[in-house]
Amino acid sequence: MQIRRADPTDANVLSTIRQQAIRRLAVPTLSVEQAEAWATGVTSDRVPRAIQEQAVWVAEDVCVIGWIAVDHDRIAALYVLPSAAHQGVGSLLLLHAEATISSAGYRAVYLDASQNALGFYLRRGYTQSGAQTADGAWPLTKKMQRGADE
Ligand SMILES: CC(C)(COP(=O)(O)OP(=O)(O)OC[C@H]1O[C@@H](n2cnc3c(N)ncnc32)[C@H](O)[C@@H]1OP(=O)(O)O)[C@@H](O)C(=O)NCCC(=O)NCCS
DSSP 3-state assignment of 60? Predict the structure, then answer.
């Protein structure tokens, strides 16, 4: 498996992975209705814009099996193809994103975790940084290690 930067030709595949990940992996923690609202509650330019405006990285085996979006010091998206879940792909993408954020000089990573992914992030060193939002997300943060010369 390799991790590479996404390009605009990846948009359709990344949109499909996003929808499948939400529908298959967020349920049953979320209800089918909640997952459906999340899966469909974005405009069609959501993924192309992320590729253009954020740093999007894909995990690729024989095909793309997951992706993560970084917006400055925030993880803006993380989705893994259901057939590739529970094999470490999400963890690897998260580590890669944290390394890019840390390399850019940020001292902490921020994200809003959906209820289904809360445990995943807590087990990877994130802590709650605010109250649950109106749409059910949990604001989380993780301090980055400072470089040896700091
Ligand atoms: C959350 C999400 C990205 C995790 O992706 P993933 O690739 O399954 O993540 P990992 O495989 O790295 O870790 C998931 C679990 O599988 C376990 N695992 C990893 N490799 C494994 C292996 N080879 N065999 C068995 N289990 C394994 C991990 O230990 C982890 O369990 P833990 O959290 O108790 O440690 C994925 O479930 C997803 O896309 N969910 C829907 C969208 C979503 O919620 N995104 C986050 C929005 S904030």
Answer: strand
How close is the Cα of 25 to the center of ligand 1, in Å?
9
Taking the CA of residue 92 as reference, the ligand 1 atom at the shortest distance is 12
Q: Which residue has the CA at smallest separation from atom 15 of ligand 1?
A: 86
Residues 6 or more apart from 138 whose CB is under 8 A from it? Answer: 112, 113, 114, 115, 118, 128, 132
52-104 pLDDT tens trace = 999 999 999 999 999 999 999 999 999 999 999 999 999 999 999 999 999 99
Ligand 1 site-directed mutation target among 80, 94, 118, most atoms within 8 Å of CB: 80
CA 85–ligand 1 middle distance (angstroms): 6
pLDDT digit string, tens, across residues 107-150: 999 999 999 999 999 999 999 999 999 989 999 999 998 654 44
- CA separation for the pair 51, 135 (Å, rounded): 24
